[in-house]
Write a structure and sequence with these properties.
- This protein has 466 residues and is an all-alpha fold.
- The chain contains 16 helices and no strands.
- Helices cover 83% and strands 0% of the residues.
Length: 466
Amino acid sequence: MDVSAKDIERRPLSTIWRLAWPQTLMMVFHFLIGFIDVFVAGRISSNVQASMGMISQLLFFFLVLAMAVANGSVAAISQSLGAGLHRRILRFIGLSLQLGLAGSAIILMAGWLAKDAVLSLLQVPAEISGIMSYFYDVFLLILPVYYLFIITNAVFRARQQVFQPLYAMILVTTVNTLGDFGLGLGWFGLPELGYKGLAWATFASIACGTVFNVFQLLRFDLLRARSFPPLRWIRPAVGYIFKVAWPGGLMMVVWHSAYMVLYALVASLPEGSVTALAGMSAGLRVESFLFLPGFAFNMTASILVGEYLGKGDPGEAKRMGYRIWLLALGCIGLLTLGLWLVIEPVAAFIAPDPTVAAETVNYLTYNMAAIPFVLTVMTLAGAMNGAGATLYNLLSFSIGSWVIRLPLAWWLGHHALAESTGIWMAMLTSQVLQACMVLYIYTYWPWQRFALVKRRKGQPNGFRTS
C-alpha cells in the first residue's frame, strides 16, 4: 500500500494530504479529457460539438450503476483493509468486477433496445441526428470496459494505492488526446475520421486504461482464482454492496437531474436568459477547478473513515472525517480567495463578451461564497460513503436539491426578483442549508452502524452487515 497504518496513526494530517494530492491531480486529468473532447469537436464543426455535449450527459446515466458499485466497493474494501482481512478484500474485488460486467451487459442491451426512444426523448435536432446515432452506438460498446475502469480505479483507491488510478488516468488522457487530434483532425499522419475519430479515440483510451488496471491487479496479486468467491459468500456480500450502491446511484441521478432542471429554470427566465446561461456555463468552468480538490478530499474521507471502521474504532473514524473536512476548508478556502482576487480578468478571458463576463462574475459571487458549504457536504458525505451510509447522503442531497434549491430558484428567479441573481441566491441558500443538514447528520446520527462488522471466530463468511 502507498500509506501504512503507522503513518496514519503518527501523522494523520500528512497522511490525508499524501492521499489527497494524487487524487486531485487525477481529477485534473479527468477534467482535461472532457475539455479536449469539446475543444477538438468544436474544430470539426458546431454540430459535432453539440453532439459531444449531449452524449456526455447521456453517458453519465449509462455509468451511474458503475459509480454505485464503485462506492459499495470502496466501503467494503477499505473496511476490510482496516480489519486486516486480506481474503475478504480479494473476494470483494472479484465480486465487484463481476457485478460491473453484469451491470454493463444489462445497460448495453437495454440501451440497444431503447435507442430510438432515448434519442427521441432527448429531442435531438435533425441536423445532428446522424452524429448522435453514431456516438450512441460506440459509447454503448464502451460500457463493459468503462465499468471495469471505474471499478478497478475504486479498488486501488480503497486500498490506498492512489497512484495507480493517477497513472491510469494519465494514460487515458494521453491516448484520448492523441486520438482526438490524430483521428479527429488528421494530425500525426493518421486518417482524418472527424466525429467518428473522436468516438473511437474515447473507446481506445478507456480500453488502454482498463488493460493497465487489470495488469496492475495481476501484478499486485489482487486478481486470481481466490478472488471469485463461492455462492454462499456472494449472497450476503451482494446484499451489503447493494445496500450501499442503490442510494449512491439514486443520489447521483437526483443530483444530475436537479442540475438539468436548474438549467431549464435559467433558460426560461423572463429576461436575459441567454446571457444567464452563458454566464452560468462560464462560471461552472471556473468552479470546476475548485471542485477538483474537493472531490479528492471526498474520496480520501471514504478511504480513511472506512479503514478506521474496519479496525473497530468508530470514534477515531469520526474524528478523521472532521480532520479531513477542516483541512479541505483551509486548503481550498485559500485557493478560492486567491482566485477571487483575479476573478474579473479570469471571467473576461473565459467569456470575451462584456455582458456575459459581468454575468459570470455575478454567478461566481454567490457560488464562490458557497464553497465552504459545498466542501462541508462533499467531505462529510465522502466520510459517510466510507461507512456505507449512502442512504443519509441520498436524503440530504434530495432535500437540498429538490425541496430547497429548485423551488427557491423558481420563486426568486421567476417571481420575487425576476432575474438570474435570484437563481444564484437560491443556489447559495441551498448549499448553506444542506451543509448544516449534513453536519448535523454526521455529528448526531448513527451513520457508523452501516459499516461491515467482523463475525465472531468460527462463524461463516467472515462478516455480517449491520
